[in-house]
Design goal:
Order of helices and strands: EHHHEEHEEEEHEE
Distance between the termini: 24 Å
Strand content: 25-35%
Number of helices: 5
Number of strands: 9
Radius of gyration: 18 Å
Largest sheet: 6 strands, antiparallel
Length: 195
Amino acid sequence: MEKTTLASFRFPRRLTETPKNEYAPQELVDFLKTDPSYFHQSFRRKFKPRPAAAEEGDIVTGEPLRAHTLDVVSKTRSAQGLLEAMAAIADFHKLVVRENVDHWEAIEPDFVRWRDFPGAYVLWTARIVRSPAGAGGDDQPARLRVVRQLVASEKALDAVAGALELFPQVRIDGDDMIVSYIAGKTRRPALADGQ
């Protein structure tokens, strides 16, 4: 599969060397000019997710205790419309989004954990859940399965790389650490005008 760089972040190494009792995460947010945690608030407020039991394939890190599985249901939007609206909000809040036709993945860099595990991130996945045959068809509300899972160990990194062709690449440049998120290219949804 062809690879592409989804995003790169320059992280000042002095922050990784600051004693923990003197470390202010806000300093990092101010430096990078982004705070992905705001996505959580918008996501909960707009989509009102409910806890759900994970199904096979939902958790791709191999670490179910570090994952939260949620369902989002809508009676007013189509499943595709719901998926696209959620991806747009993730993108607005500076999460790195990789879209496909019936699902997407988003990367939320976990900057605070970079002190201990460079490149750590939270992986958000969303996919359309199809109604079972004979379960009401078009009358069924649209449903998405959303999973939030922490990727902050070699085991999780390897699992996600194998399942989704997605991994961080870390290198040192002078006094800074640069983290790039590399991924296999996916097919984006077709635009409404067919272009």
